[in-house]
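pinned: reference chain
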Amino acid sequence: MSAKILALDTATENCSVALIDGDKTFFCSEVAPRDHTKKILPMVDEVLKEAGLKLADVDALAFGRGPGSFTGVRIGIGIAQGLGFGAELPMIGVSTLKAMAQGSYRVHSAEQVACAIDARMSEVYWGRFERQQDGDWVEVDAECVIPPALLAEKVKETSGEWTQAGTGWDAYAEELAPLSLPTKAGEVLYPDARDIAFLAQFEFAKGNTVDAETASPVYLRDKVAWKKLPGRE
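pinned: its structure tokens
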């Protein structure tokens, strides 16, 4: 896989940009939940400058398609579409949950990852992923948004130990405790553009790209325009 992939993500509290060019990866990442709109474009400029490339030199633009904060996902896809339109780049949406699975492999060499993002409103964005021999991932549990207490009924025990990823494990530790799933703590709390860029290479090789105008987010919630609660997105 040798495509030049520029990736960005603002779906959670973390804001990140990465560019893969051959065996080199250039990236910026910062936890800045209120400053995504201020930081993301300067990060893009910084990464391109460090790589010695212009936006037009990139083969495809990848973005964290969600799930995550409704506002954060909208910011990310809006910025990505603007860049994609301007440079006429094909676009690739990558699951933020799947990106955390890849991040867990990058950090821990984990090959079975259970991802839970705190979705607020007493729910988590949930997905389980297993690494394949080619480095891509397959869903074991389909992505969903669900009250964590109900996962004990939904999740079936499987072989092996699962590495935890995401903010949901700490936010709902008590509710997730009854899971009949052997897990161990992990360090990955947020998706990272490095992992989105890596995963996007698989989709690019398969020709799974879209035009900027048809790029779309994945919220998982049916009602995306919910009432904001104090201090919540």
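why pinned: Residues 70-87 form the longest helix (18 residues). The longest strand covers residues 137-146.
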